[in-house]
Amino acid sequence: MNKPIIHAFDFDGVICDSAVETAITGWKAAGRIWPDMQSEMPEALIDSFRRIRPIIETGYEAILAMRMLQQGDSIGDIYQGYTDKTATLLQQAQVGIDDLKQLFGDTRDQWISENRPQWIAMNPLFAGVAEKLKRLEADSWYIVTTKQERFVRKILKANDISLADERIFGLDRNLSKPRVLTDLLAKHPGQSFHFLEDRLPALQGVQKHPALASVKLFFALWGYNTREDKALVAGQHDISGLNLEDFLS
């Protein structure tokens, strides 16, 4: 009998449409650094955040991104100068990346403790994805994400999706996605291994590792990526663009 294909899925932008929740959490957390952000978040910033979401690799960066938007930086300015702007904000606030990770997680925890149904509602799964995951064999898929694992578990549980804790690889482990994939590949010798991700830089990072050459790479066209990303993937043969309908089927 043929062995099942092993799937590794990114979470935000592939399974979960978390952009609104990430923006709000980023704003709430930023208010604990910059007092002038302790007011209600302007609703217009959610659309702006969605437009810059593709540049964000890890959730805590939303704290800095929301500060940039609140300060009036344009979408184009943020894309062009993101690294420098991030460094400047970190220096001005006298905080480090580990501080922001902790703050972002703590802010989410507080929101969940105060209003869990609201937090869950702000983290909807993309249409049809829950049913897709429930059809998969429990031992045939993993989640490989930069999200903290406890939040992934809460969202899956709220959608009645069962996945063992040891099959969720998140920010807590301090491992890069290529490292996680390398370890998982070793656990499944002789099996086809697919990785589905919505960030092109993450897929390109996997391509840099010869040990992962056998992993088939899929680009989630419905996720947090740009038209430029989609155009680049369309011209490649080693990364396959995948739309949501084909994924669900």
From TrEMBL:
* This protein's record includes keyword Hydrolase: yes
Single GO molecular-function term?
hydrolase activity
What SUPFAM superfamilies does the record tag this protein with?
HAD-like
User: In which domain of life is the source organism classified?
Assistant: Bacteria
UniProt-listed InterPro entries: HAD-like_hydrolase_sf, HAD-like_sf, HAD_sf
Q: Does the keyword Hydrolase apply?
A: yes
| UniProt keyword annotations, A-Z | Hydrolase
Name the PANTHER family on file.
Answer: PHOSPHOGLYCOLATE PHOSPHATASE, SLL0295 PROTEIN
What is this protein called in UniProt? Answer: HAD family hydrolase
Which organism was this protein described from?
Methylomonas subterranea
Upper lineage is: Bacteria, Pseudomonadati, Pseudomonadota, Gammaproteobacteria, Methylococcales
